[in-house]
Amino acid sequence: MRRLLLAVSSLLGLIAAPIAAATGDSAPDTEVCEGCEALLELAAANDLRKDDRARDKYRNPVETLSFMRVTPSMKVGEYAPGGGWYSRMLALYLGQQGHLTGLYFNPEVVPFDGSTLADQAAAFPKKVTEWTGIPESSVSGMTLGAIPDEEKGTYDRVLVMRMMHNVMRWNIADSEIKAMRDLLKPGGMLGIVQHRAKPDAPYSYADGGHGYLREADIIKFMEVNGFELVAKSEINANPKDSANWDEGVWTLPPTYALKEQDKAQYAAIGESDRMTLLFRKRD
């Protein structure tokens, strides 16, 4: 950890000016953060991620966060942080200058008992500190049903990683995305990684219930909800995934819904085909 901090400190001096330019309220599409990818590589290589690293070849955290233009001094919200795979990566990257917030579901709209969500949000900083050694002061947590007024309009990025299918099938996407939009600065950006259905997949399959959504549907949905598409990437694409499994995306690793049945076949395919999209908050 100490070697990482020393390397980070030296690199931060080199990239201070580009960071300042990149964190303005309405950063240009051509913004470049010199040195940021090196910092992402350092975070990804940290020994504290040794148990997470096996999935890097499918989740591509360095390339994904670089594509989403996340710089080390940003205030970043991670939606539905779950087991902390991306939380650990983000905390190690943002911990010296930036701030990470775990954004939990609004307990008033979820189709399950949300009574523990506020407690989970409150516990998020301590969990991240235990995982990474990053000070608790660099981390916070909140539910989208209890956003303090002073937090609105202060976030550079909000990241929604493989979660749009759930909010779509639960019919809470509109209210959750609206809350995330309220958090973003003018010109702030929202990044999405999502299991991708084929363009001609029937709605009965691509409604979120199987884990897959059509890319065009997500783009349209975000546009209707006050965002404009900035860029899309094939970083997390997997052409081996036919995206038509009876058991949905959970047929593939790491879930293996069919357990040992044809497991070698699904392991050879790998994790799902995923869209990677970046949107800007529209005025």
TrEMBL record:
GO terms for biological process: methylation. Keywords: Methyltransferase, Signal, Transferase. GO terms for molecular function: methyltransferase activity. Residues 1-21 form the signal peptide. InterPro entries: S-AdoMet-dep_MeTrfase_Alr7345, SAM-dependent_MTases_sf. This is Methyltransferase. It comes from Novosphingobium malaysiense. The lineage of its organism: Bacteria, Pseudomonadati, Pseudomonadota, Alphaproteobacteria, Sphingomonadales.
